[in-house]
# Entry
Amino acid sequence: MVQTDEERKAKNKAHKQTPAYKAMEKARKQTPEYKERERKNRTKPERKAVDKANRDRPENKAKRKEERDRPENKATKKSNRLKPETIEKEKTRKKTPAYRAQENARRQIPENKSKAKLKRKQLELTPKGKAKIEASKIFYALERLNVLLGYSKRHSNSDVPCCRCCGENSFVEFLDIDHIIGKKQMDSVPELVKIGYSSKFKIKKLITWITENDFPEGFQILCKNCNGAKGVYGKCPHEK
# Structure
């Protein structure tokens, strides 16, 4: 008796549902040859196009969302994120130049800039956001004070922050961190470039970088008067 196409398809489908066939397929997919062949196939443009079309189908998107929203899947995902090896792996990935370049490019998109700005404003209005901002201000003030103390002790032998030029020490708000040979000129100092210095650092980033690198040479503490005069005249009048 000759089988019809429908009967043949039904028989093949039933055969593929048997435990023996599933076990055989699972073992086959674990072989190095199969994995290598699949890896090569996934890189082909036509395969990528098919995979993308499948992912973009509304029913597939809805299915993935439904799976993500299941409580057991959320719990599993959260526990995996908190594993020490996962945290360490994520830290390492975020330090790679490729990741940083990708993140910088993503943040420069106008839509993402607007979303990030709106999110920050919304966060600042919450009690948690206000507390976080206040804690950040306190941490920055302490970190800045630590840098002022470190260089004042080194250059002025002072136990309180002071200007290396005139000795001003009444208020830490009057003091600045000065680049001795100039901000941009320090980009050409090999020792500083080697440990990551950049003249593009903003003040908060600069203070953190100085702290993390154990107060490298090239910086001093000046009051705003002496620092401003040095910028205008090349040398503070106190030195004449």
Observations:
- Residues 57 and 63 are 10 Å apart (CA to CA).
- The chain is about 65% helix and 5% strand.
